[in-house]
Amino acid sequence: MIAVIMAGGKGTRFWPRSTVAKPKQFLTLASEEATMLQQTYARFRSCLPEENVYVAVSENYLPMVKEQLPELGENRIIIEPEQRDTAPCIALTASYFMKLEQDDVLVTAPSDQYIPDTEELMDALRAAEQAAKKDGVVVTLGIVPTRAETGYGYIETIDSEDHAEKFGERIKEVKAFIEKPTKENAEKLIELPNMYWNSGIFIWKPSTIAGYMMKYQPGMWSIFDQKDEEFRQSYAGLQKLSIDYALVEKLERLYTIPIEFIWDDVGTWTSLERIFTTDGDGNLLLGQVFPFATRNTIIYSEQQQVVTIGIEDLIIVSTEEGLLICRKADEQNVKHAIAVLTADQEGRQG
């Protein structure tokens, strides 16, 4: 089994700490000692040989990958000409191994997830590997939900005697993917049996990815026969598509392994409250912060002293890049706000 860590995301929900120049996978968010990328790499290296752990990254972030993972040989870095979301990245990965005539099962995994129990993770991946060896079979890890989360997609499964005989009782057949729900719908979803969060971790063979790409995304897949500058230009022109939308939601031979170990997407500021300990008033304080009559608030300051008085349920982040102040309930809107800000800045420069 080969692990491919996808490290090309922008992490805009963690603005202003995560920026386009240095996104969250290269930051020490879930640990004071190691970046998210370093933690993910160490997680897979603890159970897989060095030659079986790869990183897929856009060219502009290549220097940071080399700096943070000096032990990673260049032959284990899959380079995207530009960041075009997970579907082009995974297609490039499949093409890379197909050209090497290597069809071992791949784990394609994000670089920014918090999974402290490596042994349980690998146990689930080994079970998934056995199923994914069969042509056309795709397996994902489904997280047993612990709250009505609106920032994740959901997976609905069915119990089938047929697939249980083929793959074992642990693996469930996927019935449907459900887009990120509203708070009201999320509260209903977590009450249903066989409902899981979509982890974004997929287990499949390069040939399986290639076959589905040819079927569902033939235009995208066709560019991988191109060479050099023609390929670079074609790749840069690809539409930004998630692998869920481009392929996975269309598949019929799709299965999931439910897991209950600690897992977090580390996608928003409030996710840090599930990793670090808050104070007696429910505050998460990082930096020189002095709270008075402050409750359930996240405050991060890189340099300035911060004093808060009489506030509640806020996120306050101060870095050289900028200042963020928002209600926790609105943090899913940070990505949109930064997109508008970036477009405005680019418009002024233009």
Q: How helical, in percent, are the residues? A: 25-40%
Q: List the total number of helices.
A: 11
- Tell me how many strands there are: 15
In angstroms, what is the radius of gyration?
A: 21 Å
Hey, roughly how much beta strand do the residues contain? 15-25%
Give the class from helix and strand content and strand pairing. Answer: alpha/beta
> What's the mean pLDDT score?
93
Give start-end ranges of low-pLDDT stretches. Answer: none
Please provide a written account of the structure.
This protein is of the alpha/beta class and 350 residues long. 30% of the residues lie in helices and 23% in strands. It has 11 helices and 15 strands. The chain has helices at residues 36-45, 62-68, 86-99, 118-132, 161-167, 183-189, 206-216, 218-222, 228-236, 243-246, 334-349, and strands at residues 2-6, 53-58, 77-80, 106-110, 138-143, 154-158, 172-178, 195-204, 254-259, 284-286, 289-292, 298-301, 306-309, 314-318, 323-327. The termini are far apart. The mean pLDDT is 93.
